[in-house]
Design a protein that fits this description.
Helix content is about 0%, strand content about 55%. The protein is an all-beta fold and about 240 residues long. The protein has one domain (about 5-130, about 140-235): Jelly Rolls, CATH 2.60.120.10. The strands form 4 sheets. The chain has a 7-stranded mixed sheet, with no helix packed on it. A hairpin with a 4-residue loop joins strand 7 (about 80) and strand 8 (about 85-90). The relative contact order is 0.20.
Length: about 240
């Protein structure tokens, strides 16, 4: 990371939290009743929610518009239904994106009464307003993450699901000691690293489970797994 690089660190225990019984959720950025004026977004990354849905629980039908909404299941299966007529189950290894555009209604439910679901719900501001709503879902081979960065979201859909923004998401499952550089795609880009499991070091700072670090004004970052770790990198434009 260059000397002029800027970064912001979010420890896991500083996230917003709400327990609704059926939903136990942590917010890396301001969401619902949790408002932190210093944590409204990171560039075009608006929401990063770490959701635990109890067996049989779920989000009833509700509206969205002008937002790219990404779901990444970490444990369990989640049923999705929307007003475009899509009905699907998203599982571990899947990545789903819904472009809300001019407006969409959808629901997400854990249909398994005996099993919980843990998933990431991520919102990214789109590069244009009032787009035609769309939906995409892909399954990925977790073994492709091993000591690698697997692209699961990209602007043209050539790698992973397609997003209407200059954004790339990468997942990596690394053995302790593995080191890798990540190169950003432009001068106005930033990258937000979120540690799913284990711990990593990014340019000298150690991040533990569910810690986050955003970096910008840099062309690349260097990441080392301090122990066996899984990480999500979300590259987004800082201005759009």
């Amino acid at each position: 990371m260059e000397n002029q690089a800027q970064c912001v660190y979010h420890a896991a225990n500083t996230r917003g939290h709400a327990d609704h019984g059926w939903l136990d959720t942590y917010h890396s950025f301001s969401f619902a009743s949790w408002h932190n004026p210093e944590r409204m977004h990171f560039g075009a990354l608006r929401v990063l929610n770490d959701d635990f849905v109890a067996g049989g629980g779920g989000f009833p039908t509700h509206p969205h518009d002008n937002m790219e909404i990404i779901s990444i299941p970490l444990e369990g299966d989640l049923e999705h239904k929307d007003s475009m007529g899509n009905t699907a189950v998203i599982r571990q290894g899947d990545v789903q994106i819904m472009s809300a555009g001019t407006g969409i209604m959808h629901s997400e439910k854990n249909k398994n009464a005996g099993d919980h679901v843990r998933f990431l719900q991520i919102w990214v501001f789109p590069n244009a307003r009032d787009l035609k709503p769309s939906y995409d879902q892909q399954a990925f081979d977790r073994s492709a993450e091993r000591n690698n960065l697997l692209t699961v979201v990209s602007p043209d859909g050539a790698e992973g699901v397609e997003i209407h923004q200059n954004a790339w998401f990468n997942l990596g499952s690394w053995d302790a000691g593995h080191t890798q550089s990540y190169a950003l795609h432009g001068d106005d880009q930033g990258v937000y690293a979120f540690v799913l499991e284990g711990s990593v070091t990014i340019d000298g700072r150690t991040l533990g489970r569910r810690d986050g670090l955003g970096a910008w004004n840099t062309s690349s970052i260097d990441i080392t797994a301090s122990e066996d770790a899984r990480i999500l990198l979300m590259e987004v434009p800082m201005h759009w």
